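Input C-alpha cells:
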C-alpha cells in the first residue's frame, strides 16, 4: 500500500499561500498538515485560527491538524470548526490524555497523539487502541528544516510492534526531516503517513516531489 503524504504548510510561502494550496490541491497529496504553535510548549509561534480558516477554505483535502500547544483540549471546538478530520495532540501536553482523546472523538474528529524524540513509545501502551494515529516526531518540534533524528526509525519499528501486539488499528505518521531518503527508510520500518515541509516546498517541482514520495 502506498504511503499517505501530508505536506506541512509551515514551509509554504505565506506571501502567496493561495498558489501553494492550489499546488497541493492538484497534487497527489492525501492530507494537508497544519502545525499550531503557542510559543510555550514549543519555542516558536505559528499561525492562529483566522489564518487556518483561510487555509481550510482553499482546499478540499482532509486537514491533519497538529497542536504543539499547552492545554490543546481548550481548542477542540475551534479545530472542529475548521472542518479538521484529524486532531493531533502531544502526549507531553496532556496530563489527562485519555479524556482529551475521548473529547476529540465526541467532537466528531479522529484523535491522534504525538510523541517528542525523547518520549518512549512504551508510554502509549494504555491508549494505543483509542487513537486513530500516532505521530512520531523525528526532529524536536517547533521549527522546520531540522536534521532527521535517526532513532525515529527504531521508534517506528517499536510502535508497529506495539500496534500489532495490542490489536490496534492506529496508523503511524512521521514528521521532521522527511525527504526521499529518510521517507523510504521510514516506510520500510512501518510508517503509513509522511509529513514533509521543506522537501516539498523547496523542491524545483513540488508536485513531482509529492508524487515521488507517494511512490516510495
Amino acid at each position: 500500500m502506498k504511503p499517505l503524504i501530508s505536506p506541512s504548510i509551515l514551509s509554504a510561502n505565506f506571501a502567496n499561500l493561495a498558489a501553494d494550496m492550489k499546488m497541493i490541491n492538484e497534487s497527489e497529496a492525501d492530507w494537508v498538515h497544519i502545525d499550531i504553535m503557542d510559543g510555550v510548549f514549543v519555542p516558536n509561534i505559528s499561525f492562529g485560527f483566522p489564518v487556518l480558516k483561510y487555509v481550510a477554505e482553499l482546499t478540499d483535502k482532509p486537514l491533519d491538524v497538529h497542536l504543539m500547544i499547552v492545554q490543546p483540549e481548550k481548542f477542540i471546538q475551534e479545530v472542529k470548526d475548521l472542518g479538521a478530520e484529524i486532531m493531533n495532540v502531544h502526549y507531553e501536553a496532556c496530563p489527562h490524555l485519555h479524556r482529551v482523546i475521548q473529547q476529540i472523538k465526541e467532537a466528531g474528529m479522529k484523535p491522534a497523539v504525538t510523541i517528542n524524540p525523547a518520549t518512549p513509545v512504551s508510554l502509549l501502551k494504555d491508549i494505543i487502541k483509542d487513537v486513530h494515529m500516532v505521530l512520531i516526531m523525528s526532529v524536536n518540534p517547533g521549527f522546520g528544516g531540522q536534521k532527521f533524528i535517526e532513532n525515529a526509525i527504531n521508534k517506528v519499528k517499536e510502535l508497529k510492534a506495539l500496534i500489532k501486539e495490542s490489536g490496534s488499528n492506529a496508523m503511524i505518521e512521521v514528521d521532521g526531516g522527511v525527504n526521499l531518503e529518510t521517507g523510504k527508510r521510514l516506510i520500510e520500518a512501518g510508517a503509513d503517513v509522511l509529513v514533509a515541509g521543506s522537501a516539498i516546498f523547496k523542491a524545483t517541482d513540488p508536485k513531482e516531489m509529492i508524487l515521488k514520495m507517494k511512490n516510495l
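The radius of gyration is 16 Å. Residues 4-214 form a domain with the TIM Barrel fold (CATH 3.20.20.70).
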